[in-house]
Amino acid sequence: MVLALASHAAIGMTLGLALGFALIRIPAFHVTSLVNDSIDPWATMLIIIATFVTTFGIDATLTGFILVMSQNDTARVRS
User: Fold this and answer.
1) C-alpha dihedral sign at 37, 39, 40, 45
2) H or E segment at 62?
3) Which of 6, 9, 52, 54 could, after both became Cys, cross-link 61 (CB 3.0–4.6 A)?
């Protein structure tokens, strides 16, 4: 169960990292100009990326936990 939750967390953090970088790098969202206008652009970019990574990681872990628990319940009902 721990391995399944760790894999869900890793997938979620990878998706959060990709989405965070895409959000910063795509000029249509105008996030780059907001980051560059801040007092410390490096810290601002790091906070944005870290927020996406942790949010997606936690959400994917909780979703994985629910899926694993529902599979266990389904297996108990069928047997």
Assistant:
1) negative
2) helix 41-78
3) 9
Burial environment of residue 17 by CB neighbours within 10 A (0 to 12, 13 to 18, 19 or more): middle
Please state whether the predicted TM-score (pTM) of the whole model is above 0.85. Answer: no
Helix, coil or strand: residue 28: helix
Contacts of 57 (CB under 8 A, 6+ apart): 9, 10, 12, 13, 16
DSSP state of 37: T
Q: Is 4 exposed, middle or buried (0-12, 13-18, 19+ CB in 10 A)?
A: middle
Quick: pLDDT tens for 10-44.
999 999 999 999 999 998 889 999 999 999 999 99
Residue 39, SS3?
A: coil
Residue written as token pair 């967390």: 9
